[in-house]
Amino acid sequence: MHGGYFMDIWHVHGGSRLEGSCRVQGSKNASLPILAATILTPQRCELLRVPRLTDVDAALRILRRLGCRACRRDGTVAVDSAALSCCAVPHELMAEMRSSVIFMGALLARCGEARLSLPGGCKLGKRPIDLHLAALRKLGAEIEEEGGELHCRAGQLRGAEIELGFPSVGATENAMLAACGAKGETVIRGAAREPEIVALQDFLRAMGAGIEGAGSGVIRIRGFQPRGLVRFRVPADRIAAATFACAAAGCGGDVELLGLEAQEISALLHFLNAAGCDIINDKHALRIRAQGRLLPVGPVVTAPYPGFPTDAQPLLMAAMLRARGRTLIRETIFEQRFRQVPELCRLGAQIRVDGRTAEILGVERLRGAALQATDLRGGAAMILAALAAEGESVVLDEGHVRRGYEELDRSLESLGARIVLEH
Ligand code: UD1
Question: Which of 55, 128, 371, 391 is deepest in the core (most CB within 10 A)?
C-alpha cells in the first residue's frame, strides 16, 4: 500500500459452495487500542488471541520504537513498557496505519507529551481527527499542529467533561486512554458504543483503571493505579465474522463460525436472514446456511453501533450482487466507501452509485475478472464477489487485505473455496 514494495495476488476460482467450520480471529480493531494502552502501565502485559496482521506488526514496531519490549509467541503478544524512553512516533510508522493516532492519548497519559504526524490508513475519504484533539484539549493538553506534525503536551492532565458531537470510535478511545493519566474524574458523553470500546474498558480495568459505562453513551474514568502482570484475551473480530457470513450468503453453503459473540453482528444477520439465509445461533457456534439466489434487502443504512457497521457494508454488497432484485445501501459514516463498486462491476455486477447511496440490481451470474483492491474491506468484498463468480478472477492487492485478515486464503480454502494467495 505504501510505496508499492509488494503486491499480493489473490487467485480465486469461483463457483464453489462453502461448507465447514471456521474459528474467528482475534479482533484487529480491539487489538490496536489495547496495544497502545499497554504503555499506560510499567507492568508486563500478556495479550492472547492477538491476530497476525500487518497492522498489528506496525503497532508492535511503534511500541519498540518507543523503547518498550514487545514480542509475539504464537497468538500471544507480550509487552513490557517499563523502559519506555521516547514519546515520539516517527512519520514512517504513523503512515503505516491510521490507528496509530491512538498512541496520542496513551503517550500523553504516560509521559505528558506526544509527538506524531497525521495518520495514514485506508483511503475512505476525509478522516479528520478534530474530535480526538478537542477531547485531549479538554483534558488539559496543549496541541500544536505544524506541517502535518502534532506536538501534544500536558503538565498534568485534569479530569473533565467531554462531549463528543459524533460517537467517533477513535476519539472515544483516545479520550479514555488520556483520561487514565488525568487527576480527577472524566466523563465522556456521546461516546461510541462499539464492542471494541467495551474491550478497551475491560483491558484498562484489568490494568488498574477505575472506568465504567463503556457500551453506553456515557463513560466515566476515575484514574488509574497500575496493578501487577496483566493477562487479557482479545475478543473475536466481528468484521472477520461478518466476512465469512457474507461469503456463505453470497456463494451458498453451510458455514459454522466459532468463538464469536453473534449479537455483535446482529445488524448484519438481520439482513442475511431477510435475504433468505438460515441463521442458527447456539451457544457454541453461529451457523449460516444459504441456497441459490438471495432475496433483495434494504434499505441498509450504515450507522454507529449498534447500527449496521460501515466496515460490513462492502461485504454485504458483495453478497447481494446476485440477489433476485434491487438492494439499496446508504453509507453515512465515511465519504468514499464505495470505491469497491467499479471493481465489482468488472465481474458483471450492476451497481449504480448516487452520492451516498448505492443501488445494486442483482444479476443472474457474475464472471471472473481482474480486479484491484482499493482498501481493506473493499478488497475483501472483491474476494467474496470473485468466489461467487464463474471462472477465474485475480485480485491485485497492495497489502490492504492482510492489514485486517489473518490467513484469509487458508480459512476460505478450508471451507471449500478455491483460492490461492501469491505474495
Ligand atoms: C473505527 C474503526 C474502523 C471503522 C470505524 C467506524 C479502528 C481502528 N477503526 O475507525 O474500522 O470503520 O471505526 O466504525 O477501530 N470523525 C470526525 N472527526 C474525528 C473523528 C472522526 O469527523 O475526529 C468522523 C469520520 O470522518 C467519520 C466518522 O467520524 O465520518 C467515523 O469515524 P470514527 O468512528 O472515528 O472511526 P475510526 O475510529 O477512524
Answer: 371
State the pairing for strand pair 186-189/161-163: parallel
Please count the CA atoms within 13 angstroms of the CA of 269 that sit on its side-chain side.
18
DSSP 8-state assignment for residue 231? E
Residue 376 contacts residue 367 (beta carbons within 8 Å): no
Q: Are 260 and 270 in contact (CB under 8 A)?
A: no
The helix or strand, by DSSP H or E, that contains position 226, with its residue range, turns out to be none
Clarify whether 122 is annotated catalytic. Answer: yes
CB-based contact 34:47 (threshold 8 Å): yes
> Nine-digit cell at 301?
443504512
Rounded to two decimals, what is the model's pTM?
Answer: 0.96
> Is the torsion defined by CA of 132, 34, 126, 107 positive or negative?
positive
Task: Summarize pLDDT for 24-69 with one digit per residue, the tens.
Answer: 999 999 999 999 999 999 999 999 999 999 999 999 999 999 999 9
The answer to whether the CB of 331 is under 6 A from ligand 1 is no
**Cell triple for residue 231?**
493477562
Whose alpha carbon is nearest atom 3 of ligand 1?
311
Q: What is the pLDDT of residues 96-112, one digit of tens each?
A: 877 789 999 999 999 99
For residues 277 and 414, the answer to whether their CB atoms sit within 8 Å is no
From the CB of 402, is ligand 1 less than 6 Å away?
A: no
Centroid of chain to Cα 340: 17
Distance CA 239, CA 244 (A): 9
Picking from 378, 395, 383, the residue whose alpha carbon sits closest to that of residue 331 is 378
User: What does the alpha-carbon distance between residue 63 and residue 206 come to, in Å, rounded to a whole number?
Assistant: 20
Residue 171 Cα to ligand 1 midpoint, Å, equals: 8
* CA gap 151, 145 in Å, rounded: 7
